[in-house]
Request: fold
Amino acid sequence: MNKKALVGILIALVLPVICYFIVDYYSVGAIDMPRRYYIDTVLTRVDGGKEITDTVWHKVADLSLVNQLGDTVSLSDVNGKVIVADFFFTRCPSICPILTHNMLRLQNTLQLKEVTRKIDTTFVQFLSFSVDPERDSVPQLKKYADKYGVNHDVWWMLTGDKKSIYDFALNEVKLSALDGEGVDSNFIHTERFVLLDKDRVVRGYYNGLDSMAMQDLAGDIVKLMLEKDKKKKRKLFGN
Reply:
């Protein structure tokens, strides 16, 4: 492993813990939380004679597909979890192997819990959607997942109906809406990772080929965990 790769891994390992102490010290309210994207509607109501405006953010629709183990799974199966998603295909010779390696680093970083038993990382689910589902069969996805060391419990590689996958990418997580980027609706080939919060609201897009963007993603995952913790009064570190 070269020096640059080692530094990248060390940063990925340390950054979430550093983020926790920063947030713990200054409180969640003082942290610049990841923004929400895409308003569905704005509701106005009167409470105690005062007009109050409530924003209803776009929540991505549920979707059922088949994972690398042959299990039919859906987004509703991971309710309450932060989701990190990307779009790939197993025969991709260019960006997809890099995206998978970078997702793997996130997976392995969050498995610190298995070593320290102090950091609760069960709140994250990784999803990789095949954009070539006709050729990415369950056995092909399983072979690919095993090649890269995917933890099948926390990372699903998904295949199924192509139209459903493309509708999800274009109309639900809205890859086609990214500024300055054209997404081919006939064959999606993007380097973007998408971050969804526990309510399935889009909270960020990240260049999966860029080390700085991956650091931002790691930090934002932790911020969303703390956002959840604040509501559920859940502890990040055990006693």
